[in-house]
Amino acid sequence: MRYLLWLIKFLLFVLLFGFAMHNAEPISLKFFLGYIWQAPLALVLLVFFVAGVALGLLAALGQMVKLRRELVGLRKELRIRNAPAQPVAPDPLLEQPRDAV
Known about the structure:
Blueprint: H1 2-22, E1 26-30, E2 36-40, H2 41-82
Antiparallel strand pairs: 1-2
């Protein structure tokens, strides 16, 4: 199984490397105010893919924090619910007499 995973990883690397090599010609991205960025197409695609992943994780961060807080609260509630009750001290007047040994 381990060799199969290495083979799949190697084939994916070769496929992506071939894609990058066939798209190595520079392209121009034109931004506002006359700013132009020239870079290979594969690099531009990689930068925008990474930026999309980062924005997606940032968008999900609020929900993850909310769920983490809820989980902490539920664990605290479970710990309190499962904690043994405080033992009540027996009334010394109602205690059975102890044998003096």
